[in-house]
Amino acid sequence: QVDVAAMVRLFGYVDVTDTGFIVAVLSIAFNPLFWNVVARWEHKTRALSQVFGSPRAACYCLGAVILVLNCVRSHCFTEAMKSQPKLEGWDYHWTYYSGLAISAVGTLFVISSFLALGFTGTFLGDYFGILMEEKVTSFPFNVLDNPMYWGSTAIYLGWSLMHASPAGLLLTAVVAISYTIAVLYEGPFTEEIYRRKQKGVKSK
């Protein structure tokens, strides 16, 4: 059961009306919304591919923008943590090293996902018509679905623990929610893209 008193005490440290906290929430929510809207628009119109001369160039451009936005998100996340109080009793070595270990595992999932998918596979290449030959089933995809997203979430969780930050923990929950919503939209859409590919191959 959830300890309601502990939750109230934890989030009593968080000022959700703080400007930095609000900016962090908006940046977290904006990123997956942005790349899903742009990628679906590209899939429907091929407008970016026409502007940049090829689907691959357009995908690399979008990937670069996503990377910049992720850096902005991380900066806003960190600044929001720094502007709010730490949790009493958590600012100890065990909390710091636990957070460090969680961040290391998250980083492993993110990097291994990128290496398994490649740049275009990571940054929505399938929406640009750059399809992979087959579904990736090697590590870390044989451990969990969407390891890039959950690895990123783990990094934020670890970062929050390292800073003993209730605000960071709450923002990590926002990250997890935003990725959960993104998966609900991306999963079926991506599956449909590959279903059409398989249908096209069989019809030849």
From TrEMBL:
Cellular component, GO, one term: endoplasmic reticulum membrane
GO biological processes: methylation; phosphatidylcholine biosynthetic process
Subcellular location: Endoplasmic reticulum membrane
Subcellular location, principal: endoplasmic reticulum
Pathway annotation: Phospholipid metabolism; phosphatidylcholine biosynthesis; Lipid metabolism
Keyword Membrane part of the UniProt annotation: yes
Keyword set, alphabetical order: Endoplasmic reticulum, Lipid biosynthesis, Lipid metabolism, Membrane, Methyltransferase, Mitochondrion, Phospholipid biosynthesis, Phospholipid metabolism, S-adenosyl-L-methionine, Transferase, Transmembrane, Transmembrane helix
InterPro entries: PEMT/MFAP, Phopholipid_MeTrfase
Catalytic activity as recorded in UniProt: 1,2-di-(9Z,12Z,15Z-octadecatrienoyl)-sn-glycero-3-phospho-N-methylethanolamine + S-adenosyl-L-methionine = 1,2-di-(9Z,12Z,15Z-octadecatrienoyl)-sn-glycero-3-phospho-N,N-dimethylethanolamine + S-adenosyl-L-homocysteine + H(+); 1-hexadecanoyl-2-(4Z,7Z,10Z,13Z,16Z,19Z-docosahexaenoyl)-sn-glycero-3-phospho-N-methylethanolamine + S-adenosyl-L-methionine = 1-hexadecanoyl-2-(4Z,7Z,10Z,13Z,16Z,19Z-docosahexaenoyl)-sn-glycero-3-phospho-N,N-dimethylethanolamine + S-adenosyl-L-homocysteine + H(+); 1,2-di-(9Z,12Z,15Z-octadecatrienoyl)-sn-glycero-3-phosphoethanolamine + S-adenosyl-L-methionine = 1,2-di-(9Z,12Z,15Z-octadecatrienoyl)-sn-glycero-3-phospho-N-methylethanolamine + S-adenosyl-L-homocysteine + H(+); 1,2-di-(9Z-octadecenoyl)-sn-glycero-3-phospho-N-methylethanolamine + S-adenosyl-L-methionine = 1,2-di-(9Z-octadecenoyl)-sn-glycero-3-phospho-N,N-dimethylethanolamine + S-adenosyl-L-homocysteine + H(+)
Annotated GO MF terms: phosphatidyl-N-methylethanolamine N-methyltransferase activity; phosphatidylethanolamine N-methyltransferase activity
Keyword hit for ATP-binding: no
Enzyme class of the recorded protein, top EC level: transferase
Signal peptide: none
PROSITE patterns: SAM_PEMT_PEM2
Transmembrane segment boundaries: 12-35, 94-119, 167-187
One Pfam family matching this protein: PEMT
EC number, as in UniProt: 2.1.1.17, 2.1.1.71
Membrane topology summary: Multi-pass membrane protein
Name of the protein in its database record: Phosphatidylethanolamine N-methyltransferase
Originating species: Cnemophilus loriae
Gene: Pemt
